[in-house]
Amino acid sequence: MHVGLAVRTALVAALLSAAVTATPSASAADNHLTPRPSAGGQSSVATETPPVAAWRLDDRNGSQRAAAWAGSIRGLPGPGVRFGDQGPDGGMPGAAYFDGGDYSYLNTDRIVVDTTRAFTAGVWVRPEETGRDMTAITQSGISGTANFSLGTTTDAAGNPVWSFELPSADGESRAVTGGTPQAGEWAYLAGVYDPATGTARLYVDGVPVSTGEVTVPEDTALWNFVMGRDGNDYSKKRWQGDLADVRLWDSVIDPVELAELGRRKPWLRAYWPLESAEDWGDGQLGFPEVNHRADFLAGGDAHVITDDALAGGGSVSLDGDGDFLGSDIPPLDTSRSWAVSTKVRLHGTPDRDMAVLSQYGWQADAFTLRYRAADRTWQAVLAHADEPDAPTTRIGAPAQDGTQTLLLQYDERAGNIQLWIDGTLAASAPYAAADAWEAARYLQAGRDSAADGVGAHYLDGDLDDVRTWAGVLSEREINSL
To answer: pTM, whole model, 2 decimals?
Structure first.
């Protein structure tokens, strides 16, 4: 919602007089530019195979049933299950929390898949603890051995691992294990049984982590599907944490499809079309975010142009002499995976460095996306700490005349940063999770800054379509901008 006049006035003062120190320009020798060749054409996208049964677990808090979105089997939750938790990404609005107690389960009264034949099971999980056996989903057996189960266990050294367990001919179970569960962190688990090859495969976040030889006996007795515990009412393997998006298939699902299912979809946190400005009073202009979650305030005489706009019916023009835009709240958490993008067009061929986007903390910018005049490149600079002289990681690639679409993203899991230009991966470099930190102040467009100096590197150019995401975009998503 819009901030009030008093808050806006304070924001104006903060943005216009904030103590900031611009990141100093580096010599060409210090830039460590790492241009990459084109990433090629569109990424392969697997056709999504319809599951035989599925539950999103995004039911309203207090619901007496877990609705099925594939198949017709509803789930009956025990009192230890709470609906309404946040899902793993912006494309998945809900999850169910299991408290790990005696009534922490969600039962069905049906056999979902014939586990003596080919099948695949997948679920998003967020364990609240690790280091013990916990069952996320299972199809219980009439005997003590489950038809299958997905969850956590420990290895011979006592370390927590993910597990996909199946029955074997000797009446015991066989488990393929791998990966490392992290308490409080989401992961996507998928177990695939292929009787044609006699193998079981475990996937974590869409990546295969373990394969083992298993043959499920043809005479295995099938029983009901359960979430949050195994089939034993007195089980100690009850799940403690969140579950979301449970799916089961009666076939072997292609690894490409599992990779897409296991990818956290980016959540669009903020979008500024920059088509128009609002009068906030006292000569101040605001540029609305589409949902008014983080409106931009104009500094200097930043204004909308409608002739020759970069996209749509308008763009914001900055003259390089104190013009910039500043958001009223931090629109992304720079300590986790994130992405920012904008369309930019420089005025002429500048002979000085200019910032396009930056997000600053108390003493440093978490990132700056800028134009570097010495070698006419777009450059991303990421500080390793909220300190004035913190080490930085820098990547860059050549700038071209005219309008270009820039996207910078940090992938926490992969441990790297990427600079995309006009839909092509232009540069990439390692950037460790230990070096990332949350810059809890403003996002700026058209200048960079830090806390103990003045705004600098003002942009002489036009901007349009500024976006921020929580999460990382795929090549296909980037090419759709």
So the answer is: 0.74
